[in-house]
């Protein structure tokens, strides 16, 4: 039985919009990265400023800011806990290699999230 239930219309397949558990948590996390701080009504601290950082060269200062943004964005969701984080450049932007612990199920998973410079997408 699913612990968390939600929906996503990103696939374009509107007949199966329901997603559950880790898929829902990953989608919510990606949404949090895509929302700039101050954009969500009534929640000025929700979201991240990562989209402002991806156009910058990966200096030590930018890397530290990225680490802080990813860490604080993940900390906004009580369903997950950050275990390990590495920020690197990849061909079109910045990449976060994240190890998450799903709190309720006590399972961990490694995610690779690309913050693309070309089109400003997160995937």
Give a topology summary.
Elements: E1 5-7, E2 18-20, H1 21-34, H2 50-53, H3 60-75, E3 80-90, E4 93-102, E5 107-116
Task: Write a brief caption for the model.
Helices cover 28% and strands 30% of the residues. It is α+β, with helices and mostly antiparallel strands and 123 residues long.
Query: Could you list the spans in which at least 5 consecutive residues all have pLDDT below 50?
Result: none
Order of helices and strands: EEHHHEEE
Fraction of residues in H or I helices: 25-40%
Gyration radius, in Å: 15 Å
Question: Which band does the percent of strand residues land in?
Answer: 25-35%
The assigned structural class equals: alpha+beta
The CATH topology assignment is Nuclear Transport Factor 2, Chain: A
Describe this structure in words.
- By secondary structure, the protein is of the alpha+beta class.
- The protein has one domain (5-116): Roll (Nuclear Transport Factor 2, Chain: A).
- Helix content is 28%, strand content 30%.
- It is built from three helices and five strands.
- The strands form two sheets. It has a three-stranded antiparallel beta sheet.
- The longest helix is centred in the middle third of the chain and has 16 residues, at 60-75.
- It is globular and about 40 Å long.
- The two termini are 28 Å apart.
- The model has no long low-confidence stretch (mean pLDDT 84).
Task: Supply the key terms.
123 residues, Nuclear Transport Factor 2, Chain: A, single chain, globular, alpha+beta, 28% helix
